[in-house]
Design a protein that fits this description.
Elements (H helix, E strand, L loop, with lengths): L1 E3 L14 H17 L3 E10 L5 H23 L6 E8 L1 H9 L6 H10 L3 E3 L5 E4 H7 L4 H9 L1 H4 L1 E11 L12 E7 L46 H4 L8 E16 L2 E2 L3 E13 L6 E16 L5 E16 L1 E2 L4 E21 L2 E4 L10 E13 L2 E10 L22 E13 L1
Parallel strand pairs: 2-3
Antiparallel strand pairs: 1-6, 2-6, 4-5, 6-7, 8-9, 8-10, 8-18, 10-11, 11-12, 12-14, 13-14, 14-15, 14-16, 16-17, 17-18
Helix pairs in contact: 3-4
């Protein structure tokens, strides 16, 4: 079995390429053998592509091996004691095979560098003066390297899984006791069920791992993806099987806001909002996320009657809450959320006729601080989402307004609390 990763990703992404089919076929093929105690061990080898630093790629390969092991344990019910995992770092040998099988520009020069230039080049004092990667990047102005980056590197970001089976050799006759057990290493692409005669007894011996040659499939898949370690697009989370640890999003939208004051409701006012969202997975197996971010939002209200006023308040707003992904299909999901918000007023004004009053000044009397409850629902499709959100202020944002005196009960001038509906659209990355 071989699964692939997006650039910089470490988690198992079932929505990427044919990972879902590979994993399902692999787990199905070993299920019966596990039930019959026919599996000696599973070996995971994980790799990274040359782009990025050597240290980062080593950590990335290690993370990929660990996450695949976790997946096999949690989703395939494979005992952790049977799984051996190795981080192989940059897949230089695979890259050489791809180059040798291609007709790319500078093919012979690239092969020469891969064969004769060490990963790091040192001088007599032990200082690094060059590297294999640098020579590849400098070759012919970087054209061969850019070709490999686009056509070869995506296939180097992979984990391969090898399973070692115990196969029983039937006795030839009673006088010739056959107690040997042959251990064969097979990839999931060549896994065969093992049929055992009921009367045969086996004496296990030390298995020998057979080297399975890597034969990468070369595709023209672009490697332009998010480079943040551990980050995935939400379409992976929509599968319901594994969920990304970190999700980032950008969004913008329209808001309709009003206030309540002395138990009365003002007229609504149109505004806008924009910001970013950060979601931190709280569970490896369930799509529960801590949700936060930073938004800019324009709220306000209108009062018509005794005096016609229009009030605008612009906030920087920090939401804090929880959300949950409900998968409706491979790439479609509902994401309900709920939590609190804190808002800081950066600018505000009230317009009464031709007069404009600064809300946060002495005459305006408004507090810059607001806090309340919010809940919402997003509909996500691949990387994109649309959503609606309701915000309900819990504190008075105007306690000191003296425009109509201390005893006035004019709506919009005392005991003011914000209310707001937001409709937005955005993208996860």
């Amino acid at each position: 079995m071989k699964i692939f990763y997006r650039r910089g990703y470490r988690y198992v992404d079932l929505s990427f390429r044919d990972n879902r089919a590979q994993l399902q076929r692999f787990l199905n093929s070993v299920e019966e053998a596990l039930g019959n105690d026919r599996v000696e061990k599973l070996v995971i080898r994980s790799y990274a592509s040359p782009d990025g630093s050597e240290e980062a790629n080593a950590q990335l390969a290690e993370g990929r091996a660990e996450e695949l092991k976790n997946y096999l344990v949690n989703e395939g019910n494979i005992p952790a004691s049977l799984i051996e995992h190795h981080a192989e770092g940059i897949a230089w040998d695979m890259l050489r095979q791809q180059v040798a099988a291609s007709e790319m520009e500078g093919r012979d020069e690239v092969l020469s560098i891969l064969d004769h230039t060490p990963v790091w080049v040192f001088d007599d004092q032990g200082r690094v003066v060059g590297s294999r990667k640098k020579e590849l990047m400098d070759l012919q102005g970087g054209r061969p390297y850019r070709y490999m980056l686009e056509h070869f590197f995506p296939d180097l970001r992979n984990s391969s899984n090898t399973v070692l089976y115990l196969r029983i050799i039937e006795k030839a006759d009673e006088s010739n006791e056959a107690s040997s057990v042959t251990s064969a290493a097979q990839s999931a692409d060549a896994v065969q069920p093992v049929t055992t005669a009921p009367s045969v007894q086996a004496e296990p011996v030390t298995p020998v791992e057979e080297t399975v040659p890597e034969t990468p499939t070369v595709t023209a898949e672009s490697s332009t993806t998010a480079a943040s370690d551990g980050t995935r697009e939400p379409s992976a989370a929509l599968s319901g099987d594994r969920y990304p640890r970190h999700v980032f999003g950008l969004h913008a939208g329209y808001c309709s806001s009003w206030i309540t004051s002395y138990g009365m409701k003002s007229s609504t006012q149109s505004g806008y909002e924009a910001g970013f969202t950060y979601r931190l997975g709280l569970s490896r197996q369930y799509p529960v996320y801590f949700r936060t971010g930073l938004n800019f939002i324009s709220k306000g209200y209108e009062v018509n009657g005794f005096d016609d006023t229009r009030t605008v308040i612009n906030y920087l707003q920090l939401p804090v809450g929880i959300d949950y992904t409900i998968a409706l299909g491979k790439h479609l999901a509902l994401i309900p959320s709920a939590g609190l918000y804190y808002a800081f007023g950066v600018w505000g004004k009230r317009q009464v006729g031709d007069e404009k009053i600064c809300l946060f000044g002495r005459e305006g009397g408004f507090s810059r601080h607001d806090m309340g409850f919010q809940c919402g629902l997003d509909v996500a499709f691949y990387r994109f989402f649309v959503g609606a959100e309701y915000q309900h202020g819990l504190i008075d944002i105007d306690k000191n307004d003296t425009m109509y005196g201390d005893n006035s009960q004019m709506i919009g001038y005392k005991h003011v609390q914000n209310r707001c509906w937001v409709v937005k659209a955005g993208i996860y990355f």
